[in-house]
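Researcher: First entry.
Model:
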Amino acid sequence: MATLAEDCDLSVFDHRSVQAKIDGIAAGLPPETRVERESDSTEIWIGAALAGAGLLLGSGFAWWWFQNRRTGF
């Protein structure tokens, strides 16, 4: 919402109006269909895990390529 407000120049009144509509829609949903947003710490851990996996995969590929280059393949 904050990004939308900054990009589209929404007034505080418009921002509150949109948020009230979102809250009204969410309140009308059955509890089992509601999806809670991940916490910031969870998002950080997911990002760190993906970055670590990428580094591991990249270093493994670099090692494989270097070994093949040394043997003349």
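Researcher: Second entry.
Model:
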Amino acid sequence: MRWRTAMLSVLPLTAAAVADSIATPSVSTQHVHHQSAACRYIAMPWTRFALAYGSLGAAVLAVTAYIVVLREANRRRLTPNTQRRGNLPTLSFIIASLLVVLAAAATAMTHADAAETAANLGTPMCEG
């Protein structure tokens, strides 16, 4: 695989991680809204887990792909810091690295919310 093509493979993975990270709070907000409207705890939707793990997986894959390609280039004594490559893959790597931390936190929070919901499933939330 060519160096440029390999480095550009990081871009779609980073884009997927960003898209999932943006969609996760929306799904979470919708679930909270449904619980509030029903005035009771409602089971956590599977989409919330899918988006949280999808974001984390895509970010980890983007970081891993960048590091593997960079190490392979160093092993073959290629010059990875050429102007032909540009800065887009490196910027994607930085974004994906930050998203690993954010997605891990979102995944942990999703599990915490699911545990609270499972413990109180069906019980009333509202007073009165």
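Model: Note on the second entry: The longest helix spans residues 88-119.
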